[in-house]
Amino acid sequence: MNLREIEVFHAVYVCGSITGAARSLHVSQPSVSKTLRHTEDRLQFQLFKRVKGRLLATDEARLLFREVDDVYQRVGSLKRAVKNMRTEGAGHLRVAVLPALGLSVTPAAIAKFRSKHSGVTFDVQALDHADMLRCLYENDTDIAIGFEPASHPRLKSVEIGKGELALIHRREVFKRKAGRIDLTELNDVDYIGLTGSGPIGVLLGCELERANVRVNEVVSVRAFFIAAALVRKAVGVAIIDEFTARAMMGPDLTFNLLSPPIAFGVHCAWLEDRPPSRLCQEFIDLLSTVLPHA
After folding, report:
1. Do 92-160+265-293 and 3-87 fall under one CATH topology?
2. Which residues of 5-14 are buried (b: 16+ CB within 10 A; e: fewer)?
3. What dotted CATH number matches 163-262?
4. φ, ψ at 218 (rounded to 5°)
5. Of 79, 106, 224, 94, the residue nearest 166 (C-alpha)
6. pLDDT digits (tens, 9 = 90+) for 171-222
7. Reduced to 3 states, what is the DSSP secondary structure of residue 164?
8. Would you state the pLDDT for residue 229?
9. For the whole model, what pTM was predicted?
10. Is the CATH number of domain 92-160+265-293 3.40.50.11740?
11. What is the CATH number of domain 3-87?
12. Who contacts 57 (Cβ-Cβ below 8 Å, separation ≥6)?
């Protein structure tokens, strides 16, 4: 199958009709039908059957789609990378951050940076830890800022600061506590757990196990800010990064750092063959000064 045949097959499979595929590809219906027939002739098996007016994929088509979808996604990735290279500009910085660092740290850094470089524009996007390498590889961003980046031969990173995990809770909970809270005080407390939260979740899990703490996990979430929102609604307490905790503070919420401290690094990453520009490096340096105070 050539790329055009892959594109048409993918569109028909996803849309479930010739009409929908033609619309998504911005071509005529006869053109889609002709390409599909030609593809079936070359493959020597049928891809779709029409049953009671509906187009249904054959078993062969379902098996083929698994392979085709991977190729299709890779072609899409290539197109996005080319587009991003074409529109890249010296006075425009593209930054991808974990949501935890997008609530206060990154906005504070951008505000401070633009007070000095008012002509510089930014594109900021949130990303999951697992998407850091993909985002850089597809040239969707110049730098990615997160916690403990994965080890990869193409990935270069620098530690721009450190943070700690913190217990966030309503003020009436642990209301007489000042300073740090011992992990053992969480035994049997209603707790909002973190799943799929990358290296921070792994770090926290190891510390809870080491301290032999058995929390009463009533909800599990994948984002720190959702955990904080649930705490605000009195669902339970949560252990999150201190940056999210500071950003979510209010009359009803407060936080305490933990004893023993659970620390982690904050890193800025880029691809080795696409080092930061001078302007981007200046922004990275600024981040390291803003981070402790955000």
Report:
1. no
2. bbbbbbbbbe
3. 3.40.190.290
4. -100, -25
5. 224
6. 988 876 678 999 999 998 999 998 866 788 888 888 988 999 988 999 999 8
7. strand
8. 94
9. 0.67
10. no
11. 1.10.10.10
12. 13, 47, 48, 65
Query: Could you say which DSSP state residue 131 is in?
Result: G
Domain boundaries, the chain: 3-87, 92-160+265-293, 163-262
Tokens standing for residue 242: 């201190």
d(CA 144, CA 129): 10
How much of the chain, in percent, has pLDDT values that exceed 90?
51
Question: Residue 3: pLDDT band by 50, 70, 90 thresholds?
Answer: confident
Distance CA 164, CA 45 (A): 59
The 10 Å CB-count burial string (b at 16+, else e) for 212-224 is ebebeeeeebebb
Q: Which two tokens stand for residue 179?
A: 């300073």
Tens of pLDDT, residues 9-41: 999 998 888 999 899 889 999 999 999 999 999
